[in-house]
Batch of 4 targets.
Target 1
Amino acid sequence: MVLNDATLVLNRNWVPVNLTTVLDALCKLYAGSARAIKPDDYSLHDFDSWASLKVIDGAPCVRTASIAIQAPEVIVLSRYGAVPDRGVAFSRLNLYKRDRYTCQYCGRSPSVTELTIDHVVPRSRGGISSWINCVVACVQCNFKKANRTPAEAGFVLKRTPAKPERSSQLVFARVQRKVSWEKFISDAYWNVELKE
Ligand SMILES: [Zn+2]
């Protein structure tokens, strides 16, 4: 379904800030809050101008009774602040996503019901609930570690826990990159969340 396809969203400085759907991208064009970028010549188009472009043969497009509109693959926001650059909420789901549903001590990925949140420095010893002190641990490792630090329990963390920079990067990691996006995104940007 083309309308559910991914469109890359750039802020006014042409820095990638998010992904959205083709449907939302077209709505933003129609509302005037974004313009579409034609990847081959970087020309900017509002809704009418985009809709009047000839659809390239074989390119994904949205068809109505009267017109065919090419699916915008990259849009640039007209205003600052349209996509808030919020930090990632500290939640169980986001923590599980950050650690990829993998026990940070033994590296196993059991079912979600066997995963727990472990405080690296135990709460009873002043450890707080935060991105840098909480990791995903399987039930067994959590039980074995008990009220100790990883060093005391002879455990080594797979990764140093850190706050994810932006939720959009978590989304990016799972979406197929489009050729037209390459010009707007450096490899370093894409690799932030993917490297171990
Ligand atoms: Zn484990």
Target 2
Amino acid sequence: MNNWAAEAWRGVVESAPEGIVICDATSADCPVVFVNAAFVQMCGYPAAALLGTNLRILQASDRDQDARVRLADAVSKGEPARVLVRNYRPDGSMFWNETVIQPVRTEKFDRSAGDACIRRVSRVIGASYRRGGDLVGRWEGGTFAVLTQGEATEKATQYAQVVRDRVRALLMHHPTAGAGRYVTMSAGIASLVPPRTLPLAGLLKACQSALRRAKKNGKDATITAEAADFQDLQLPATATASPKPSAASTTTE
Ligand SMILES: Cc1cc2nc3c(=O)[nH]c(=O)nc-3n(C[C@H](O)[C@H](O)[C@H](O)COP(=O)(O)O)c2cc1C
């Protein structure tokens, strides 16, 4: 499936008139990882309350049901099922929910979904650094390198946070991400005054050290390189003179 098709499928599922949920049977207690608008409307719970939760929440205290036992059996065996189960909205009103379970065996984040995700993030990063002299490239995997000139470290860091917010605002579901379960971005920032020959490799190294710390810090973080990160360059990490070129390497997670 190419990226266009992946995005198109997502649009179709999101706007389908039937309620559709995707649960991750490989995670503990089979949490919801995707829910479409029709399901939200049917059950009355906001998507945020369902994501990361087992759908037994909809049974409230009405657990003594044959349908519930059949669902438990089907889920434990990884088999399809079709049952009529009594479910309840947050206001306590009951509705009959014809629940059809169809197991789908797939990688957690299959290649086409991963590629579509990286393309969307790269569009955000590319659109965020468009001044003459800005250089944006994919570094490796989900990591991008940005080289931008004339930005003081503080300004570059603040702006990276804006870009981080833009990536988060895409609200791309991530099946294994922690808080929020959305794709997030971390950034490592390093800046220096160029010597006669700019040691770009060293600048990138400093970025990568900062990035490693950002990811270690729980992801969705922005970290600025410290003097120690520039050791190989044998240059001061910060200098008072400006303009300063700065490089930000960013990564999606
Ligand atoms: C994809 C999927 C969709 C489900 N949808 C519902 C649902 O809409 N309503 C419901 O009561 N249970 C639903 N379930 C079943 C519950 O998540 C759970 O498996 C069931 O309550 C049996 O497990 P339990 O006895 O541990 O509660 C769904 C399960 C899966 C895997």
Target 3
Amino acid sequence: MMISSPKQPGNDIDVYLSPVIEDFKLMWNQGVEVFDGFANETFKLHAMLFCTINDFPAYGNLSCYSVKGNKACPICKEDTASQQLKHGRKTVYLRHRRFLRSHHPYWRLKKAFNGHQEASGPPTPLTGVEVYEKVNNIDHTFCKSIKKVICDKHLEEEINLL
Ligand SMILES: [Zn+2]
């Protein structure tokens, strides 16, 4: 889906996604009859949304994850190593060499990176239970132009989809 607009929708993207979510709920819960031209028969199709491809700002809108600031790396999370550039004032995210295989030659390079060798491996991935605990009580308000009561309903529907 491409959204053509002079301005990006921001958190109002859920207005665009609402019909898609309704379709996926139907396909997941009940399925839809579709025709298989090769087998020349109909069958019940069940579908789910597996992943999305989007830019980093849209990722923030879709996931409620902060994509700005010192802890903005969604992989490193609380273990994000960030630094503000002296002249550009941009925040950059460091220590991603630790995701390379253990003792990769880049681990020892200093000058090409931040002046330090990489000392430890990647952070431990969260378990499914830990992810659920983190997203279970997310309190966010989408739909800038719609009353919050409706937004809470959307949030509840989105959680049910997970
Ligand atoms: Zn990171």
Target 4
Amino acid sequence: MSDIKDEFGPFDGRIWLNAAHQGPLPRSAVRAAEGAIADKVSPHRIDDADFQRVPQALKSVLAATVGVDPLEIILGNSTTYGLHLLAHGLEWRPGDEIVVVRGEFPATIVPWLWLEERGVTIREITPRRRPLSAEDLAGQLTSKSRLFCSSWVFSFSGEVIDVASLAAVCRSRGVLFVLNGSQGVGARVIDAAAAGVDAVTSCGFKWLCGPYGTGFCWIRPQILQQLGYRQDYWLTQIDQTDLRAGLDLQVRGDLGARRYDVFCTANFFNFVPWAAAVETLLTFGVGRAQVHNDSLVAQLIDQIDQHPRLRIVSPTSPGERSALVHLTHTDASRNRELHDHLGRNGIDAALRANLIRFSPHVYNDAAEIEHVTSSLLRIA
Ligand SMILES: Cc1ncc(COP(=O)(O)O)c(C=O)c1O
């Protein structure tokens, strides 16, 4: 691939710096989506085997983004999908505690909340220093803690947790570690199985540049076996070449992760383009994307830091920062005005918790960052 920038757009002359909200669909995925639509216009083109082939191909590329076995990938429709499986599938006892970190995105918390009806406590811990360190987590877990759920990269602050060290603490205390990877998968390298997490879940429509309504999760096989929640979908259960009718159908228990795939797993309009998008990212390389994005972040930080009235509030040091950069005017009441000014000038950033958030990805370049910072510095 010569220049990955050519694989994206057009952006109508605008600069999209908001992958943390939605990643744009690359052209490869647009072609794939057009193919899927053409197939549906002329359904004779859809082969029976496509119902297996499409999810399998998608699982192969997704598995490579988090370093796990494709057979262990569960296809969903969101980040929430995987958390929901765990919240409803694990066996809970009254008094159990689920630990989350203060400042979390709602998706990391909401799926667990119904468990309060079962006597489970959802406990929010405040790190002594952000991001939460292994030592701090070790001090805040109790004998009741059953599960720790955290974002990998925090949407509202840009901070990144050290997955492996927190996983080691959880492992040593018999606490499950569930990672919300939505703001990292596709933009940062991770080997989830080796890092020691018990599950990772992600949406597909941010850094993985897929359509909205996509997501996946990986659950460590030993934990998957413990799920008491049954999800039996006919197309997963049977071999399509052997369609039979009647009550001689038996529910198979040997399907592993496949059993928990979202229903209508060969979701052609979403999964065909999503697989193409992930393939494009993998061809470029997630490691390369991480380096590329970090150099744009370094440029943003350097240039914004020079302004006396602008302050970066997300982590800035090379080992600690992510591709999410949050900043504020020293008079924070001006942040909305600055954000709107950028928008009127063709620069798409986010305003979250009254902070301006930039999140560059592979299709952005240094010239764009230069344009953004000069536009911002002029009016700040
Ligand atoms: C950390 C994080 N998790 C999850 C989501 C989305 O959750 P879902 O895919 O369940 O809609 C977002 C953003 O929309 C997010 O920033």
